[in-house]
């Protein structure tokens, strides 16, 4: 299973968690097996403009990501991830990528649902 | 006896090959026409089909404009043809337009959406936040707005 985590430079388990999945510096990709971290690498982000929030969705799907840990996102990208078969988990309060990943592997993160998305008639949780 | 038999066979094969070439060319062109053009769906009942906005979109060599009259038809196209963009009118009920956008995204979140609205872009953005819509079009949109929209679609990598 490949877990994608929006990160600040330089990425990796000790990097700070990226607050906005679409505008983060880069992604840390963690390959996990049986609840253990097997490999850690980074993936550059792709630039996008207003209305182009599906570019990062396609980018992560193309790179084999199965699960995304995110602090906040809109309804459209969440639907896009789900339609691409990528599950999104809510990890807004994690200080680092490593903390978020370990919380996910321990089963302590909540699955991101539409009522947690930013805007679109609901209450925003994060940018 | 073997000679004529082979001649007939060769002629038949040549005809078959020639017919296949023609058929493949015709079908290939038809398929290419429909698959390579970027499909823009207009669900804009109050817009004049001869307006500068619509004709500018239609005149673009990489664009195929499909006009629909009902919500059902629009959602069917989203389901079956995965258009690059759906243009909607806000009309007098913004919530209805936003509801349609959610319906579209529920089917295929890769489909871009844009609304024609009298609201200023900032207010509309606030209302539609999270839905990943393109910057709204003024009511009624002009040929210049169509050109700007085409440029935006180009930046989004819609044209291949």
List keywords for this structure.
heterodimer; A: 127 residues; alpha/beta; Nucleotidyltransferase, domain 5; 6-stranded mixed sheet; 3 helices; 21% helix; globular; disordered C terminus; B: 160 residues; Rossmann fold; 2 domains; 5-stranded parallel sheet; 6 helices; 5 strands; 55% helix
Overview of this protein structure:
The complex is a heterodimer of chains A (127) and B (160). Chain A contains three helices and six strands; from the N terminus they run E-E-E-H-E-H-E-H-E. With 127 residues, chain A is an alpha/beta fold. The longest helix of chain A is centred in the middle third of the chain and has 9 residues, at 54-62. Chain B has 160 residues and is of the alpha/beta class. Chain B has helices spanning 2-36, 52-59, 71-81, 94-107, 121-127, 143-155, and strands at residues 38-43, 63-67, 85-89, 112-117, 137-138. In chain B, helix 2 runs parallel beside helix 6 (143-155) and helix 3 runs parallel beside helix 4 (94-107). The radius of gyration of chain B is 22 Å and the shape is elongated. Classes of the chains: A alpha/beta (127), B alpha/beta (160). Chains A and B meet through helix 1 and helix 2 of A and helix 4 of B.
Could you write a compact summary of the structure shown?
Chain A is an alpha/beta fold and 127 residues long. Helices cover 21% and strands 26% of the residues of chain A.
For the terminal residues of chain A, how far apart are their CA atoms?
A: 27 Å
Class per helix and strand makeup of chain A: alpha/beta
Overall structural domain count of chain A? 1
Compute the number of structural domains of chain B.
Answer: 2
Radius of gyration of chain A: 13 Å
- The overall pLDDT of chain B, averaged over residues, is 85
Strand order, main sheet of chain B: write it out.
2-1-3-4-5
CATH architecture of the largest domain in chain B: 3-Layer(aba) Sandwich
Question: Could you please say which CATH topology of the largest domain in chain B applies here?
Answer: Rossmann fold
Total number of helical segments of chain A? 3
Helix content of chain A: 10-25%
Q: What do the pLDDT scores of chain A average to?
A: 88
Kindly report the oligomeric state of this protein: heterodimer
Q: Give the count of helical stretches of chain B.
A: 6
N-to-C order of helices and strands of chain B = HEHEHEHEHEH
Strand content of chain A: 25-35%
Low-confidence stretches of chain A: 120-127
Strand order within the widest beta sheet of chain A: 3-2-1-4-5-6
Biggest interface:
A-B, 25 and 24 residues
